[in-house]
Amino acid sequence: MITDGMTIDSEGMLWVAHWGGWKVSKWDPMTGEKLHEVKVPAEKVTACAFGGDNLNELYITTARVGLSEEDLKEQPNAGGLFCVKTEEKGVPAYTFKG
């Protein structure tokens, strides 16, 4: 399993997408403790980000590249975008003007 995209919540916890892992996991970066896991109905999880009006929706992207026809029958939503409401909140994005 390989880690892919990541995001931080308002408490400074790290959320990690797991390519090949069917999930996003939440970690305490100070202790290294895994705190939570969000299962996804797709193997190749690519990234995660908080959004929504209250920044409490975790958007999770996935890929279907390299999956066989048999794999796609088992995970027809691979390559899709998933949204999970969480108790945690993200932080607003900062803009950059170059």
How is this structure best described in words?
The model has no long low-confidence stretch (mean pLDDT 95). The longest helix is centred in the last third of the chain and has 6 residues, at 69-74. The strands form 2 sheets. The chain has a 4-stranded antiparallel beta sheet with strand order 1-2-3-4, with no helix packed on it. The protein has a 3-stranded antiparallel beta sheet with strand order 5-6-7, with no helix packed on it. It has one domain (2-85): Thrombin, subunit H. It is built from 1 helix and 7 strands, in the order ββββββαβ. By secondary structure, the protein is mainly beta. A hairpin with a 6-residue loop joins strand 3 and strand 4.
Task: List descriptors.
single chain; 98 residues; mainly beta; Thrombin, subunit H; 4-stranded antiparallel β-sheet; 3-stranded antiparallel β-sheet; 45% strand
Write the layout of secondary structure elements.
Layout: E1 2-8, E2 14-19, E3 23-27, E4 34-39, E5 44-51, E6 57-63, H1 69-74, E7 81-85
Antiparallel strand pairs: 1-2, 2-3, 3-4, 5-6, 6-7
Alpha plus pi helix count = 1
Please summarize the sheet with the most strands.
4 strands, antiparallel
Structural class: mainly beta
What CATH architecture would you give? Beta Barrel
Cα-atom radius of gyration: 14 Å
Write out the strand line-up for the largest beta sheet, numbering strands in chain order: 1-2-3-4
Instruction: Assess the beta-strand content as a share of residues.
Output: 35-45%
Low-confidence stretches: none
Shape: globular
What is the fold named in CATH at topology level?
Answer: Thrombin, subunit H
Order of helices and strands: EEEEEEHE
